[in-house]
Each structure stands twice: as C-alpha cells, then as structure tokens.
Amino acid sequence: MSYPSLTHVLPKETQSKANTKPSVTMCFQVLACAYHVFTKVDEVLPKANPKATPTNPQSNSNKSPKQLQQIPKATPTKARRGQKFAQNFEQVVRREFFSYTYVKEMIMDVKSLSISGPTPTAVDSLNLCRIRCGQDDAVWSSKEEVETPFTPSSFNEVKANKQNLDIRCIGDYLQFFSELDRWALEYVVVNSVRLFGKKLAREKAAAMYRPCIKKIGTFDPLLRTKLTLEGQHRTRYWTMAGEDRNKPECWQATVFKTRIRIGYLYITESTFGLALECTDVQVCKEFTPAPLVCPF
To answer: Which of 152-161, 170-179, 201-210, 225-234 is least confident?
Structure first.
C-alpha cells in the first residue's frame, strides 16, 4: 500500500526545496511533524475491545472456553490498521503539516530575523547586509488586496533593472512593517559596532534610518518596495487562477496582492534602510479607465 508523499502537501514555494539537501532546521521540522502525527494514531485508529468479538459486540463472559477458542480474535491485523491509517492520513497529516508550513513560510515574526555582517559593493561607501529568517530568506505575504497611487518608476535611470513600487499601506501591511521598522532601528542600535564599525547613539540612528513606511501630510502611508524587471529573480505576475501573466497595463487601476522578500539592509555614510523586493504580484482586479471626453 502506498501513502501520499509529504511533498504533495507542501506549498508550491516549498516544493522546489524538497529535492535539495535538507537543512538542520528542516530536519527538526520534519521530526516534529512525524512526532505530532504518530501521537495522533490512537485518535485515528479504532481501539480494540478485548471483551468483544466481530460476531458478538457484547461481553463474552458467559461463553465456555471451547466456544471462546472458536471465536476469532478481535485485534485488528496490520493490514486493517494500515488501511485505516491511510484513509485518515490526509485528514490528520495534510491539514496539520500544511498549516504549519504555511505559517512558517508566510507569516513571520520579526523577532526571528537576523542581519549578517556588512559586505562591500562596487559602489563607494555602500555596504549590504543580508537579512535571514533562521536559515531561509525572509519572506512575508498577506491575503489583503492593495493598490498603488503611482506608476512604478526608476526615476531618471534609463537602464535600471529595478523600479520603485509604492503600495498603499493598510491593515496587515501597516501593522507588520511598522513593527519591522521598530525592530530594525533597535537591532541596528544594539549591533552598531558590528554593522557600522562604531557605537551609534539611538538619536543618531533614528535620524539616519529610512523607514519602510513613508507618511506625507494627510495622505495614506505608503510602503516602499522594488520590482525586478529582468533576470533570474525578476518579479513574477499571476492571475487569480494561478497562471503566469504580464504586468498590469495601468497600475493605478489595479488591485493586487504581493509576496515580499526582506532582502538586505543597505548602509551608506549618511543613511541606512531595508530593501523590500516584490517577488510575486497576483492581479486581483483590473478596472478600465474611463474614456477621455473633450470638455469643449
């Protein structure tokens, strides 16, 4: 008898990792899942009643020894137990394991993040520090639908491979990235000697920090993110059916969801901040702009 493969219950983002060399964190996760499953076997499988038989569910206390010898044992065979376990595999394992993996991959706690030491770049006075969530990339996603008031742009850079996408920051976005900004500032102050090579006062760090969320006047706060135009890590666009598609023609008339990677901390002489990269954009709705009408 064959049982469902664990790779079938993983999200698509995790299936690609199934064939790679497992990390220590992944091994502990699988062991924890296996322990959770087999501690539930007693709940899944029927318990045998030693005083009952398949032919008579009532007590056999009135049977003679000769009659008892002719009655088959009530303990289920290994085959029957295996069949029952296979029938309940999806009910127990698929739900529990998928939920655990989804929460771990998509809904992060900022306290689980860490920042590596600075790495020099080809640009003078620019250092990059990679951000990790345990042994994995720091990825965040939300089911909330959002909008942008602006068309993505690269300012005056003609050959730029990145574009700025300012997302209207509400709900889950506002809550998580506000907390991320607070965490980043506190982390840098505590680790300023390792990251900057000198002790940095909190007031000085706050003046240098460029937050993920920007607020201008009475307008809604905006989340600063980046789109990658080309290359292996280009931003992918999806329909509601999960099919690949092109980027929206008019961003201001589009409602979408995002999957954001907290890539790295960048440090210059006068400022530092977090780089947020939209790895995936799911287009939920596209509205057709109203046709222009001549006012004369």
So the answer is: 152-161
Q: Which residues contact 47 (CB under 8 A, 6 or more apart)?
A: none
- 88 forms beta bridges with none
18 pLDDT band (50/70/90 cuts)?
very low
Token pair of 205, please?
Answer: 């760090």
Instruction: Quote the CA–CA distance of 135 and 113 in Å, as a whole number.
Output: 10
Mean predicted confidence (pLDDT) in 10-37: 53
Q: Which domains does the chain show, CATH number per domain?
A: 6-106 (no CATH), 110-286 (2.40.50.140)
> Could you give the CA distance from residue 17 to residue 21 in angstroms, rounded to a whole number?
8
- Reported in sequence order, the residue ranges of the chain that DSSP labels E, i.e. its strands, are 113-115, 119-120, 127-133, 136-137, 139-141, 162-168, 209-210, 213-214, 222-228, 236-238, 254-267, 272-286
Using the predicted structure, report yes or no on whether residue 270 has a pLDDT greater than 50: yes
In this structure, the chain runs to a length of 296
Considering only residues 49 and 129, tell me which one the structure prediction assigns the higher pLDDT: 129
Confidence label for 195 from pLDDT (cuts 50, 70 and 90)? very high
Q: How would you classify the pairing of strands 236-238 and 272-286? A: parallel
SS3 call for 101: helix
Q: Which residues have C-beta within 8 Å of that of residue 258, sequence separation ≥ 6?
A: 141, 142, 146, 167, 225, 278, 280, 281, 282
pLDDT surpassing 70 at residue 217: yes
Rounded to the nearest 10 degrees, the angle between the axes of helix 95-106 and helix 24-38 is 150
Coil, strand or helix: which one is 87? Answer: helix
